[in-house]
Amino acid sequence: MAFKKFAVRSLIGATMTVGALFVSPTFAAKDVTFAVSLALETLDPYNTNSTLNQAAGKAYYEGLYEFDKDLKMQPKLATEYSVSPDGLQYTFKLRPGVKFHDGTDFNADAVKATIDRVSNPENKLARYTQFNRVAKTEVVDPLTVRITLKEPFSAFINAMAHPSAMMISPTALAKYGKDIGMNPVGTGPFKLLEWKPAEYLRVTKFDGYWQKGLPKIDTLTFRFVTDNNTRAAVMQTGEAQFAYPIPYEQIGVLGKNDKLTVVDDKTSIMARYVSMNTRVKPFDDPRVRQAINYAINKQALAKVAYAGFATPIDGVVPQGVDFAHKIGAWPYDPKKAKELLAQAGYPNGFETTLWSAYNDGTSVKAVQFLQQQLNQVGIKASIEVLEPGQRVQRVNQVKSPDDAKVRLYYAGWSSSTGEADWALRPLLTTPAQPPVMNNTAYYSNPKVDAAVMKALTTSNRDEKAGLYKEAQEVIWKDAPWAFLITANNVSVRSKNLSGVYVQPDTSFWYGDIDLK
Predict the structure, then answer these.
(1) Which of 299, 331, 336, 404 is the most exposed place for a label (fewest CB within 10 A)?
(2) Neighbour-count burial of 15, counting CB atoms closer than 10 A to its CB (0-12 exposed, 13-18 middle, 19+ buried)
(3) What is the average per-residue pLDDT within 445-460?
(4) Mean pLDDT over residues 126-153, rounded?
(5) Residue 35 β-bridge partners
């Protein structure tokens, strides 16, 4: 078995803080604060589907592999790997001399403890679907671990590079159990200092970090700032050194501040959509779902909610994700929408609810616009903007489809593995209905299920592309979602801050963060 070798890149995690500490009478500490739009649900990377939670996790946790700022896979705690000819066994060589924050050695035992935990369905972790093909994890020697799969899984290495696939101290797992979500212990460049769930997460430099010279800053704080205007204001005042997302309508103002740099990145793979509960009337009728797609002016949505810094989606999977199939955006045609509603038996429309998965200012603007658009074709939708805890309880943790109260649901998702599998399987296959994953449309089509699952078992790229194309075309026609936009990743940072990037999946890479 030939080992695949990668050039090892330095990488670290970091993120913010406020105020000026002094480590000596002469040298001021380097404290960085990130202003972000959402509070964190948990610090357990395996029990959240939140991109922001996993972005913060890069400060104190590391995986065997990672995605760099351009979403290219790089080695981290592993140095190389090999795959058996049948595609079932992955053998990893581990980096020597690495320790967890609690002094525990990072080795094959630690990898086994971590993977055993997430691959055990009894633990009911949110990322179980990502690892449910793991049959067993074996220690070959202290620096070699072998993971055997139940069936071939062509996206497995991508899954191991995902920011949820972090290595946790086995000592900490034994000590904290289910409370590991409040007590993260990893190998990352920072360790937990303080977490106030409604306010901020602060981490501090880990002096025992294996990459010498890193991190270059002393503390990093993720400050939770829901209000768009306040998030912009803390950048103007210097209370924060990095902010994402920023209010699109204030991009021009922020750009005029000579102490700030605005970065407009158009490589986003974050899809914004409205899922429709296909199990209940009227959304069980594809004509109703198609009507809703026709009823929404995506260009106007991009202008109203995103100040033009967004593009209508032209396929189920955004361009930039491997195996994305470009179809062409649903046209805005309210007349066609009304015709379809009448054919479905709703000539006067109907009443329903529209929930937003997010409570930031831009999302509020988006759902208000959607409400107005639907009203124009006779659909009267009452809006509710969910807090993170409400979202988890009322959407993600619903035990049975029969108990689901969700109807229209504004949300977003990025394929953080960089491959179409993670844009389709967690959202649009039958086994991914809550509480397993995020199929909030409760969509079920055997053709889609079969194509997605077969694509995972083949290493033939052409065959895989054909299967993913088939799945995406069926989904587009079935319209379990209203396919909306991808918004540009626009962020702002202080000019004296470097080494911080928004990745295409809207996560953060801050492996070389520094403050001059």
Answers:
(1) 331
(2) buried
(3) 94
(4) 95
(5) 223, 243
